[in-house]
Design brief:
This protein is an alpha/beta fold and 994 residues long. The protein contains 39 helices and 21 strands. The strands form five sheets. The protein has a six-stranded mixed sheet. Strands 7-8-13-10-9 form a five-stranded mixed sheet, with helices on both faces. Helix 25 crosses helix 26 and helix 28 packs across helix 29. It is globular.
Amino acid sequence: MYLNCKTWFSLRYGTIRTDELVELAKDFGITSLALTNINATTDAWMFVQECQQQGIKPILGLECRNGAAFKYVLLAKNMEGWLSINRFLSQHLQTETPFPDAAPRLPHTFVIYAWGARPLPSLAPHELAGIRPREMNKLFRTDTKKYADKLVILQPLTFQNEESQRLHRVLRAVDNNLLISQLPAEDVAGTDECFMSPYQLLETFKELPHIVHNTLQVMEQCHIDFAFGQHLNKKRFTGSRGEDRQLLREKAFEGMAYRYGPDNEEAKARIEKELAIIDLHDFNAYFLITWDIIRYAQHRGFFHVGRGSGANSIIAYCLQITNVDPIALDLYFERFLNPHRSSPPDFDIDFSWRDRDEITKYIFRQYTSEHTALLGTVATFQTNAIVRELGKVYGLPKQELDKILENPYQVKLGEDGVHQRIIRYGRMLDRFPNHLSIHAGGILISEAPIHQYCATHLPPKGFSTAQLDMHLAEAIGLHKFDILSQRGLGHIRDSIDLVKANQGVDIDIHNAKAFMEDENVRNALRTVNTIGCFYIESPAMRQLLKKLRCDDYITLVAASSIIRPGVAQAGMMRQYVLNFHAPDKVEYLHPVMKQLLGETYGVMVYQEDVIKVAHHYADLDLADADTLRRAMAGKYRGQNHFEKIQTLFFDNCAKLGRPRAVSEEVWRQIASFANFSFSKAHSASFAVESYQSLYLKTYFPKEFMVAVINNFGGFYNRELYFRELARTGAQIFPPCMNNSQYYTTISGNDVFVGFIHVEKLEQAWIERVLAERAASGPYTSLENFTERTDPNPGQLETLIRIGAFNFTGYSKKELLWKSSALLKNDPPEELKPRLFREPSKDWELPHLAYHRHEDAFDEIELLGFPLCSPFEVLQHDQQHYIMGADFEKHLGETVTALGYLVTLKHVYTAKREPMCFGTFLDRDGNWMDTVHFPDSLRKYPFMKSGFYILEGKVTEEFGVYTLDVFRMRKIGFFEDKVKETGTTMGSLSLAAAR
């Protein structure tokens, strides 16, 4: 009798969790119910799985609405009907066309209209009329027995109780961007759309048992037969399993000859082993599809990095999916795939952000949109968004909301009624689904049509996207291909092109082994000259590399793993650093552990270490060892099998004569570490890309930094990368109307900033201006420019102020004077070609004063930063501050430094008090790292970017010097002029600095 149930995946409408809906049905003995969310099928399989677990028959359907207007409910009779519903909804979502008033004839479905929407005699065999309990009085003139086979109970279920009904009103106000007091009645569910027990429904319809009977008959005709745990991905790359197996074998051994030579017996043996396991699970097509994607990328000249646990596979290495040698790094294939692992392997393929969409288009074209979709995800309400949305609903002014949210650590709400309602409903909205989104890079390729499993929508990127998240997709047996983008690959790709264009040098960027052995590259790594380099440029990573004196691949691979938040927070990073500096003091639990973990100084750094220890210390086979790793990390649901492995672990240890106490400690360490560990193959892939970036930065620093800038930087903001570019000796010019392009360019030693960086400049217009220059030649003067491009005053002023017309020889003030007269005397007209050009007018201009800081402040306004060093603009005596390079000389002393803020990292202490780490530049362009403990940060909070006078104590840990700041003051560009008025602040005055 429950044909119209909604969950919180009726976004910004329903309030019931999916599991809560099923649990409610179970509590009342309901044996069948239908899920019919509004224009969404997002949680359909979660609902089916919950129902199966509770012994309830699930029915899948859809509630179709145009905005707030209800049209009808669709119910699937079977899986074919579910396919029809998903196709119908997907067409509506992708074309943004309204649902028709009369539903089309969809195979294997029922349609339920609201009472009175369609005349009963006109209803087709599959069409029904739904009667809500509140509509019983509308039946007194209808011969209900005559139409008994057309009438069903339609009691909507939208919320649980009165409190949830109020939350529903809040959600509707949020969705409509209205004050809750202005919410129209038609946009809100009726108060009767709460749960009615079977007894209440039967009591309501006791005079109309034939309607009850027909409702049950309709439900009886609906069956969703679906088994979880299948493999629903595309099964064949060629025509058959045998052909797939043979093709994969051929390509693997072709690749072996390229990677290892034709006679490497160790490689041959491992390939044979992997091929057997891959075929056992029928994953040949999964490998071949991934190979096909890489083959297309190579054909197009796209650079890629294959990572993830897939880098443990020698076949992936031979197919050039990955670039990590699993034999050289002793990587276990069982971490990637083994007889006990039923899910397909995991490949993460990174491309440049410029190339990723082309790869995605190829996949949709090659495997068809009928079987392909981007993986979706569901964004939930976050704390700040909840407060802001609820504040708007209850009419709080923007200034008050900004004040509530100004503290990045905690939201401050008061005791008044509105604030209390925000707190109450904010707590209820925690983890509530808010809107559909797109997974970072997952793509689904199914054997059956993709709409057999979900509806699809069309986000702005223009690719069909599943109403299905990763967890549900995996649960039903659809496993994603990860096609990701990252800026680091854009840096590398564009650097290679720029070096070729600017210096005529071809670079074999895949020769990573040579880069690792290059002494200059090793020195760059040792001195952490890594800004712009993938994964090794952040303050935390630079400090770690310095502490480890890192100058080799193996150490970099370890650093790439232990820097991960979980590993670091578990204390493994600090333990590794301590052991690195005192290897002779490392105490190993057992001689076997020393043999296994000597490379990592007794610390389990990688997921593979868990497998290695379980295999060699406890004699578990590699498949069981990986099952243990997955179980420890919470990724394995087979509790009985896990307990068997635990028993096997200790039984084997006893047979091998391992001391019980030692075995228990080994088990404890595995348990404490496995949940935080990182794949060695993943770290190795990252480290290879880091070396490629570092090689380019070492030998072609100017081109590399231009490439970083054109790919929108990395960890830091773009100003820092322009500062780094200046350190290379490049001559940086502001955007020039005759030399700049939309992106930043380099020619010889000269770099011209791209117009993309200029605020207030319209992209479409400046691209037309550049096209005109390309077609008709350089601009000869301001008059020539205005004649050819017909600029509006605002755009022309922006170009003049940023220095785009410096080539004319006039100052900016003179050019602004001239532009005013030009645009005033020569109003815009349609652009048309002219046979003759009039000579420029010789304007007689007054003498206009110029101050050197004017250009810098124009650049700050229009670029966000000055192209010169900000210290050159600062009017403040800078000679008396300690420089970052001199911290070493003042260890343990209290010093005062002047820093230009680069970035902050906010964290919490164990007591949940806010503190942060700061990164600054000094006048010489060198780094200064600072720490701001809770008391200091509370007294001296940061006030956005700019200059800060920092007073604190110099500390040191393993060669990394840090300023423990206990007093701080922000200063402006005209600080000394301010100080002339007598403005000082405690010991941070200029005199104190001296």
